[in-house]
Structures are given as C-alpha cells and as structure tokens.
Amino acid sequence: MDLPKKNSKIAKELSHLIREGEPKKGYVKISLSDDFIKEIHLLNKFATTTSYAVIVNAAVISFWVIVLTSL
Question: Tens digit of pLDDT for each residue in 52-69?
Fold first, then answer.
C-alpha cells in the first residue's frame, strides 16, 4: 500500500477523505470507498479501450500507406 505525502497533489485533491492520524511522518492515509474505486476502474477501462482503438487504427493506416506507396 502506497501512502501519499501530506502535500502531494493526490492528498490535496482527496483531502476530504483523509483519515485522522498520520501513519508515518509526512504521509497521510486516505479512505477510499468501494464506489470510488469502481468509478476509477470505469475511467481506466474507457482510457484503455480508447488507447487500443487509436493504436490499432494507426497500425492499419500505416500498413495501407506502406502497401499503396510500394505499388
């Protein structure tokens, strides 16, 4: 388990979820609900799917450019 530093971007964005007490000096614990984690998974799934679509399209276009220019 990674703990964000107290002044990190993540800690500032999720400051409303920080638990009381410091696990280590300069670090914070952030409580994440199951709903929040599911939302992150959905966002990552969309980004991954979109990335694969772009890569496949670029590969197909590159293939046809090479084929057509070699004729």
Answer: 889 999 999 999 999 998
